[in-house]
Amino acid sequence: MKVLVLGGGGREHAIAWKLSQSPHCEALYVAPGNAGTNAIAENVALSPEDFPAVKQLVLDKGIDLVVVGPEAPLVAGIVDFFKGDDALKKVAIIGPDQNAAQLEGSKKFAKEFMAKYNIPTAAYQSFSASEVAEAQAFLEGLKAPYVLKADGLAAGKGVLIIDDIEEAKQQVAEMLGGKFGDASRTLVIEEFLDGIEFSVFALTDGKSYHILPVAKDYKRIGEGDTGPNTGGMGAVSPVSFVDEALMKKVEEQIVAPTIKGLAGEEYDYTGFVFFGLIKVGEEPKVIEYNVRMGDPETEVVMPRLASDLLQHLRAAADGNLASEKMEQSTDFCTTVMVVSEGYPGSYPKGKEITGLENVNDALVFHAGTKQENGKVLTNGGRVIAMSGRGETKEAALSKSYAAAKTICYEGIQYRKDIGFDL
User: Are 93 and 154 found together in one domain?
Assistant: First the structure.
């Protein structure tokens, strides 16, 4: 099979890395890709949101299967574009249609979906740009801390958790006033859930599903989960507190009803469902849905997937996922994300990365890099995910941190406490 992965981050590098191991993978392309994917696939310089350019590439290269990595093209309707184009109808594409992609594209939509299908989540209310006073009044009836969520996509930065009521009211005004552009013209305010978070992923063909390795990511920039939210500073899989009893509840109360609900709404959903969950006492609740794999969780999930990802994706596209057997490694995998100085605020690009050739006991998944004149340069806030594998969490972490210490670029930063709380 000839395969195209859309995207250019660490998630896409990890997916491409796993796909490249399949005996069924005849040719592999990544668009736009990065300096890491360039070593295992052919990078193509185009935007995943430029649908006509994607179509031309698919036709030119004779692509059989397209894997959509990031959320933006899914929310923009790339699956509908493929299904509605006679020249592309025979090309398999992994991702939900535009209607189902609202599970990630709209917090309000996701909350209403959960309410309809009785899926456990935090109590909430949504407000439009003209309802600032009403939203501020709603805060008065809640206990601190206050959870404010931009309805639309905000690059992982549209969720604010605030302890002070006056600051929360100010942020309500700013968000509904366009702090995150159109993404926060509608605002979801919900009760704060006190617990510990974890990530569950399922691959579905719209009818059946398989659950992938469970992971926990670390979103805050600073040690001890301090500072602003980021796209993710590291991840661990498996997760010590997610036992068989908890996973039984997750599957029965959340995963199965979600897949059944998607089928009941008659959405075209072939692809990954990300369940951002929180354990409150002994009960799981949904914080958010994503309609693709998480990042940096993919950088620990893919190394623990012991079976053929490409075969699974092909079966899902054909509606035959139930016949597949998905296998997981018992090893631990951890990843530590090295980032640019200033991230998640403004940060420089174009810093030369050295020492990559000396990393030999970890998987190096490039997130924000580019190749220029034979050099690998930083090209994003999150630069590289260092994924270590071992029989224990500690063994895996030692490899991740050794790899992080091996490379160098100006302003390199990373958290030193990933996985220490498990």
Answer: no
